Backbone:
């Protein structure tokens, strides 16, 4: 082979050798870029609780019978959540959140050997599985983002801060978790953005269903639907504004308004002679909440107030609903108003060790906290008797130990204080919680 041909062959071989790793590198870059766009996370809680009061359903209507009732214990998995999101680029992204409440649901078909071999559907474990978020988002810039799909409604403190590392107790704050859906999620459209120290969000959603309101939980169950779809005969609006212009401090206002009457699977046209003619059941909720945090102190609190129009008519209709088998609605009155006020504060007892070079001590925290919650889920409309046990105060205290920022071991003791004719409800609980991302 002459020098010319040798040179040409060398160039060809060199080109092949050089081209191969470049192609492989490009493929690796593409794969790596795709993986970097994926975010995987979640949160969860496991709780053991002891309740030093009766769990009988008549403990309020016949309180004297259950004054010395034995205590009882419960093991619970309040939430186990998987979060997935992906950034497609060009401003397009998706997010999902699948939640298993109280262990989810286990159902099975079994063949009963003692009942002539027939097959039976068995519910082996109670609980709920919910698609809490499932949305597509287009981000134009930091000032304007459009999100459509199944989204969290950011009304109140807890709905916007519902991860177990965002509150001190074993369970979500009781007041908001009683009078409003929590975590509140609906299928709708959201506009949100940030400008300096401000963040805003405005949403268009299906209104709540007044048929599902009750005395113990006010409108808590109104976002549920026993059907394969969500009735949306009426639409509602929700909005939230956050300000964080001071280091460690956040101040927030949020609200909701929508007509809830006749927003069910069957829309009834009431004649002018009907007492329900013209009823709308307009629901209005206003909330203020705040959070302050520095190296050793956390303080959080909220005030919520809600008003339900036509509450007397809704109460009459709900109590007169059919009692046929399978009816998913309660048959109780609903309050014209409901409210909640709460505050919690915690001090990091390990702050004095923060100068240590031990990385574990640097990350760990031991919060000593106290919490007070006062709420009423039933302020009656004119002509309706008060449900006095619906007004409660909850006082609790405990510790939250964080060996790592994502993991907390929580211990809590407290008492639910009711009107004097009822029995107070002391409790204690211990559990482990976590919230974080496996990849982001």
Residues:
């Amino acid at each position: 082979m002459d020098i010319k041909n040798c040179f040409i062959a060398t160039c060809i071989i060199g080109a092949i050798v050089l081209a191969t790793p470049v192609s492989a590198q490009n493929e690796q870059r593409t794969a790596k870029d795709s993986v970097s766009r994926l975010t995987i996370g979640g949160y969860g809680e496991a709780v053991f609780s002891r309740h030093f009061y009766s769990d009988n359903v008549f403990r309020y209507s016949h309180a004297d019978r259950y004054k010395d009732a034995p205590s009882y214990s419960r093991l619970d998995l309040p939430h186990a959540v998987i979060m997935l999101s992906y950034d497609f680029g060009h401003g397009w992204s998706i997010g999902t959140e699948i939640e298993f409440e109280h262990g989810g649901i286990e159902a099975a078909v079994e063949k009963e050997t003692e009942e002539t071999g027939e097959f039976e559907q068995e519910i082996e474990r109670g609980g709920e599985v919910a698609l809490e978020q499932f949305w597509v988002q287009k981000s134009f810039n930091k000032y304007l983002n459009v999100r459509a799909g199944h989204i969290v409604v950011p009304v109140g403190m807890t709905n916007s801060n519902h991860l177990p590392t965002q509150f001190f107790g074993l369970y979500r704050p009781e007041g908001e978790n009683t009078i409003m859906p929590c975590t509140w999620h609906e299928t709708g459209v959201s506009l949100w953005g940030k400008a300096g120290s401000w963040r805003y969000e405005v949403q268009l959603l299906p209104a709540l269903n007044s048929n599902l309101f009750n005395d113990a939980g006010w409108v808590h169950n109104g976002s549920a639907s026993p059907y394969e779809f969500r009735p949306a005969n009426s639409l509602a609006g929700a909005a939230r504004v956050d300000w964080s212009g001071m280091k460690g401090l956040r101040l927030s206002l949020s609200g909701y308004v929508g007509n809830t009457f006749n927003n069910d699977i069957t829309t009834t046209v009431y004649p002018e002679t009907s007492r329900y003619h013209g009823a709308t059941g307009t629901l209005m909720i206003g909330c203020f909440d705040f959070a302050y945090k520095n190296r050793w102190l956390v303080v959080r609190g909220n005030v919520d107030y809600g008003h339900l129009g036509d509450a007397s008519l809704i109460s009459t209709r709900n109590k007169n609903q059919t009692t046929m088998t399978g009816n998913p609605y309660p048959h109780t009155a609903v309050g014209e108003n409901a409210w909640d006020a709460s505050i919690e504060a915690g001090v990091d007892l390990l702050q004095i060790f923060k100068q240590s070079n031990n990385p574990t001590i640097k990350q760990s925290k031991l919060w000593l906290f106290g919490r007070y919650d006062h709420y009423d889920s039933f302020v009656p409309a004119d002509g309706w008797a008060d449900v006095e046990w619906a007004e409660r105060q909850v006082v609790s205290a405990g510790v939250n130990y964080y060996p790592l920022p994502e993991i907390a071991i929580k211990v809590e003791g407290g008492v639910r204080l009711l009107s004097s004719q009822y029995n107070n409800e002391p409790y204690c609980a211990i559990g482990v919680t976590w919230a974080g991302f496996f990849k982001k």
In short: DSSP finds five helices and 19 strands in the chain.
